Structures are given as structure tokens and as C-alpha cells.
Amino acid sequence: MNHLPQAWGRPRDDVYGAYDSSYLQGQSHGPTQHTQSPVVTGTSVVALKFKDGVIIAADNLASYGSLARFTDVKRLRTFAETSVVGFGGDVSDMQYLDRLLNSLDTEEAYGSAGHTLNAKNLHTYLSKVFYKRRSEFNPLWNHILVAGLDGESKPFLASADLLGTTFSAPSLATGYGAHLAQPLLRKVAPDEEAAAQLTKEQALEAVKESMKVLFYRDARSLDKYSIAVITKDGIDLKENEKLEKQSWAFADQIRGYGTQVN
Amino acid sequence: MAEVCMPQAGSDRLRAKAKRASHRAWSFKSPRYSRAQRPPQIPIHLPSLIPQASPSIPEHHGTGYDLTNSVFSPDGRNFQVEYAVKAVENGGTSIGIRCKDGVVLAVEKVITSKLLKAGANKRIATIDRHIGAVSSGLVPDGRHFVSRARDEAASWRSVYKTPITTKDLASRMGGYLQAYTLYSSVRPFGITGIVAGFDSELELPVDGQVGSGPSIGSGGKVEGKKYGGPGLYMIEPSGMYWGYYGAATGKGRQTAKAELEKLDLAALNLSLEDGVKEAARIIYVAHADNKDKEFELEMTWISNLDGPTKGRHQEVPKDILEEAEKLAKKYLEGDDDEDTKDDDKPAEGDAMEE
Description:
- The complex is a heterodimer of chains A (about 260) and B (about 350).
- In chain A, the strands form two sheets. In chain A, strands 1, 4, 5, 6, 7, 8, 9 and 10 form an eight-stranded antiparallel β-sheet that branches. In chain A, strands 11-2-3-12-13 form a five-stranded antiparallel β-sheet.
- In chain A, a hairpin with a 5-residue loop joins strand 8 and strand 9 (about 155-160).
- With about 260 residues, chain A is α+β, with helices and mostly antiparallel strands.
- The relative contact order of chain A is 0.19.
- Chain A has six helices and 13 strands.
């Protein structure tokens, strides 16, 4: 998947060639469909399972194209004090889904047993919402990660996107993170067995390192981020974290583009 | 449909019809009854001819004014609504107490059978997350009330993107109950509902809000400003509702009200924890008039954000509830010793069983 949300769900140019827009016979036909491409977007969400739970993180930026427009946007949303959803892609669609989850949470609590939805149920629900919307040719332009615990109180992590595509792995990342964070997270948790050995400290370190690498190399990222640790004890959500120990000291050693000496 | 005749002033047709009707079994003067095919009853108030239940309050039962909803009696009452109140007066006692840092709701559930599971069959419901509702009277009407209240709260959220305030919910539910007094095709609600909530003291973000907005200046934040607070409303079958410091309805309402008045709730000195104890005690005291039947106490509370429920409507935790019930029983035993020394034999028997 391309890291640019604008390209999500579209045929890849390198495989299929550029889209021949001459078939559209000019832009004046039909209404402008603002829901068919994202406007204000969030970049990567990264998440990693460990021994006792899951860690999920996303930065606090909402970009307007290349403009870093909103810098205090919280893209991790908690659900029923047991799950966290991390949103990448369109922020207005994220707000819609947030309201949807809020009303689901309220109605769920009306039952005599109280909350019964776990992260696994929540992921199933959201993936069906996504698939229905894409089937109506009116997708919710997001790629989300659902982190929490499943019905057996085991760590649960899964992805769902604007096409209704779902998959699961011990570590997951959306957008640019799929290219940059995933290889780093897979080093510490190549498979489920390895993830089940990870301590919280090891997992936290790996996720924070991934966020730092993303800030170095993703032009739509920010050094302020939110991070949540979900265990049986509940959710520990921090929404105003700052990247630490960045390495820029080497930069002043670099001169020119080849032959320049000083 | 010759007998259906709408009054048309000065109409010859009408006068002719009246002539024809005059030798029928029923009177022309009563078009409403002729429409409904009822035997003749002339709904004219004749106080001297009608037996009265008490000399000061004229009783109009049996004069025809009480057969249909939305009909005014000659002195302007809607008897069907008053009959609905009688259904409330037979229901289990419900109370609400507004404390300085939250609200408590409690209900007496009379145990009609040993086959009923303890702790099941909840009577206090949550609306949105921060409001509780309980009612006395017809239980299914109470369920309908709660269902409507939840719809109202959800619709408020979808429009305003923020939780409904207790006051606004009470207003909407008052309007809803009042609408059921307006038509002969519907019946009034056989309940009096108590709605209690805690409106957040924070400036709430709208649902789905991202970012925090300007920190200063126009649209900015006012440092330390508190909003909201506890709210308690009681809505009657007529649709009438008021805000209360303490509210009681159902069979034991008189006793409960007397106890509530003693608490001086208007001074707002009562803490939520004490409110729970008082609520349990009042339900036990109110039940004392109805001693032959066992009951179960159900109790919920809503605190402020710093309190035990963090602004949510929740059941009172088991240990706190049991402590409050223990104190209530102790109070009653003390009461029995002092007041009713000679006729408290059955009460002691009850106490032995527990």
C-alpha cells in the first residue's frame, strides 16, 4: 500500500499504468465528490503485541496536504476501557467513526450485563462498517489498528482499512509505518511466540524507536505523539509525549553533495 | 351516520336534525356520546343531584367526564390523568436525593415471588452515561419512558455533539408525557418518573473533536470555571415536572417525603456517601407501612468527576449498599424499641428471619 492516503485503495500506477482520465470527458460532468478522497489526514499508526498486552502509538499531526495544519490531534481513541483504536487517513472520517463508537459504547452499556464487546468484536464491527461503505462506493478513508484484548483476555491486534481488508500480526503499522516501522518491530517480534516473550519495557522501546525513525523520514509526521499500553489492568494512555534522544549531531559533518571539502 | 352532528351555528339543517333527534332514545345535546354509541348521559354538571364523596372536593366520577382521555371536566380537570396517578400511588416507592457532589436514586422492589432471582430485574436505568431514571407505577410504562429518554439523549448528541443536560432531558420527557394527555386515542403514562444526572463540570469537547482549540482569547478557555452540577427532576403523568432537592413517589411517598424534608437538602450539606445511607434508610422507613411484603433495595448514584463514579451513572457498589442497608435496619430496630413497644411483635419476627 502506498503511504499517501490519497492513493489508498486505488490501482497501483506501477502495475496498471496511470488512469486514463480522458474517459471522464471533462470534469464538468457530475458533482464534485469530496468524500471520494481524503482532505485532512493523519499518517502512520504503529502497534506491537507483548507478553501482557499491546502497545499502540500515533503522532498528533493532522496534515492538510503538505501543510502540517493541526498539531494537537489525538488519533488514539479508547473504547469501553478495554480497547484502543488508532486512526490513519482522513480525520473527518475518523471523527465520524469516533461518534459511531461513542454511541455503540453508550448503547452497549445499557444491557443488563454492561459492556461485553472486546477488542476482537470491535475489530469485526469496524471492518464490516468499512466494507459496507466501500461497497456503496463511499468509503471511509481510513486505515485503522484495533488494539486490546480478545475474548480470552489474550493480547489482540488487527488492522482494517477503507476497502474492508483485514489482517492480523504480532506487529502492525499503517501508511509509511508499514514500510519503516514494521521491519524494526519484526526484529523484536518476528512471530507470535516471540511477541509472547516480550516484556512491556522491550515493547515500549521498540515502538518509541519506530516513532523516532518515522519522524526522521516521514515528511507528514510530528515529534509529538500519543501512546497507549493496554493490559488486563486497563489502558494507560498518554497523549502528549515528545520524541527523545534524536540524533542530529552528525549533520554538521556533511558538506556538499560529493567533491566539496568544507 | 345521522347521529353524528357537528354544531353549526344558525344552521337550519341543524335545527331540523335536532327535531328529528328529539324523539330518539338519546339526546341531541350530547353529540359526543351519540357518536360513541353510548347510552344517554347528560354531561351537565348538576352538583345538587350528584352524590359527592366529600363536600369540599366535588367528585365527577360517573358523570362521563372520566371515560376518555383529554376531556375536561366542568371544573377543568382531566380525570384520566388523575386515574393514572392512582396507578403510581400503588407502585413501589422510588426516591432521589440531590447531594452536594452527586445524586442518589433508590427504589423499593416488592418481591412478589421467591422464584425471582435476587439482583436481577433492574428497575433503575441508565440514560446516555451520566443520567439515571427510575419510576413508580406501571413497570412497562417505565420501560417505555426509559426507551424514549435514551432516544432523546441520542438525538440530542447527534444534533449538538455533546451529552444532554439533566434539565433538558427532563424538559423533553415532560413534553412527551404531556403529549399523552392530549388525545382520546392514547392513554396517559401510569408512572411518575424521577430523572437524576450530573452534568459535567468541565467545558466538554464536542463528540469527535480533535485538537483543543485556542488556549486564550476569543473562544479560549476560562481558567478554573466550573459548569454543570447535580440535577434531579420528577415528572408526573400529566407531564408536569419540577426540579427537586429530594423527590419521592410511589406507595411510600408520604413517609419518604417527610424524611426527605428533615434532611434540609436545600442547604447542600449532604455528601454523596451520606446521601446513599439516607436513601437506604428512607426506603426502609417507607416500607415499614407495608411490612407484610418482602422487598429488595436497588440503588444507583452519579458523582462529580472527582467522585467515585467520575460523572457516570452506576450501581452503588455491593459493599457500600450492604453497609447502608445494615444502618437502615439498625435505625428501624431502634425506632421500634422507642415508639411501638407493645405492637412490634411481628417486626421482631421479621428481624429474626434476616
